[in-house]
Design a protein that fits this description.
2 copies of one chain form a homodimer. By secondary structure, chain A is of the alpha/beta class. Helix content of chain A is 46%, strand content 17%. The structure holds a DNA duplex.
Chain lengths: 222, 222
DNA sequence: TAGATTGTTAATCGATTAACAATC
DNA sequence: TAGATTGTTAATCGATTAACAATC
């Protein structure tokens, strides 16, 4: 697989392609053109072909793309076939919700263990994932090959836990605390899930639309 | 406030500015230049000034920006002072976690009610928010001024619930189901929270780094 | 074969960065 | 006043779109 420097925009579109391809596959469609895919995703066919061409040649002239073949290519580009293992730290509300609802396996990630400080949780299992004491975190990381950490601890301890994670070989953090974990240029990879950012953009778009309506109404009055 | 067409990139940066300004304010800093702000956020001073200039003139030559003043301006741009009211549909794991952990108030949004079909939940309250029967949803929307809906129902009923929401005056949906709710060009505003997209990008970035390391290692071997 | 559709090169468009006059 | 820093215009850079030869 090619691995040139690919822009962030392209990378962020890959999971959307994957979801669409999964959907097509479920509906028994096994062939699609960049034109049709563009229609369904609201993108131009050009952009789609450009995006794919960052990674290789997955289509066939006059035919288009084989849905399942393309799906596998994109899954592979995203690293879903690399068997990454993850731990989750902080089995509170959001941590628990993730363990219960979110399918790590569907992203090709194995959730190997969870950690918490709550006595009543320690030693139990949830959906086959053991919940261990946070005190064991460091030792566990030294003895297991874990690439990813899902950070769901309260803000107050986030920095401290991050330190333990980074010093013990974690490559990347999926960050559900509402904190900016890293300085610009930090070597650790962090993906932030900021609920508030998301809701605030929504609030912006609604406000924009409201203002447009008000403006239009006042134009009609005149 | 100016309201020219502002690019998506700018809008997505606004909540980050807000968070940073909150942090500065907490630390008792009441003045900042675009240069310093850029340092802290990993952006260029130019970009920051350009971003702000979409909405007005919030700084002062030779001085910079007043932290709390700028914070209020951005909060207002985001619509945080408009008193939007929201309902939440589907008090399952993720819905419950949001009600428990997420501060709607911090985004200037009031969570007015939640809806579920589970008998044991209906009629109860959680953190002051009443949980009502999903059957009452339509009537409730007709009698209350609700702008936003937080969608946390299972995939299977998502389309159906969305229909009820849009037909009864909801402006925007904060979508936690892993479904694409809208066709391109739909009039309803949707903000998707796709956990899997987020984790898959993380997986990509890790894979990219791994490949770089492998490549470097093989160069060193020669 | 003729039609369809790719992968890629070139053209356009938009976003970021640099520069600088204005001014606090 | 001199120094600092804004807001804005111009220059650059990068991403998207269009065009088209290659080819299934």
């Amino acid at each position: 697989m090619k691995r040139v420097k690919v822009s962030n925009n392209v990378i962020r579109r890959l999971p959307r392609y994957l979801r669409k391809l999964d959907e097509l596959q479920e509906n028994g469609i096994n062939r699609i053109s960049s034109f049709e895919l563009g229609q369904q995703l609201g993108l131009t066919p050009s952009q789609i072909r450009q995006d794919f061409s960052c990674f290789g040649e997955f289509g066939q002239q006059g035919y288009g793309y084989n849905v399942s073949g393309l799906r596998e290519q994109i899954a592979s580009i995203l690293g879903m076939d690399r068997g990454y293992r993850a731990i989750l730290v902080g089995v509170g509300n959001i941590g628990h919700a993730l363990m219960d609802n979110f399918s790590f396996a569907d992203c090709g990630v194995e959730l190997a263990a969870a950690f918490d400080i709550k006595e009543s949780l320690i030693g139990t299992e949830f959906k086959g994932v053991p919940i261990l004491a946070e005190a064991e975190l460091e030792g566990y990381l030294k003895n297991n090959d874990i690439a990813l950490a899902v950070l769901c601890v309260p803000k107050e301890v986030a920095v401290n836990v991050t330190k333990i994670l980074t010093e013990n070989g974690i490559e990347a953090i999926w960050n559900f605390t509402n904190m900016e974990l890293t300085e610009p240029n930090s070597p650790i990879i962090v993906e932030n899930v900021h609920f508030s950012d998301s809701l605030l953009s929504l609030s912006y778009f609604v406000s924009e639309r409201m203002d447009e309506r008000t403006a239009e109404a006042s134009r009609n009055e005149k």
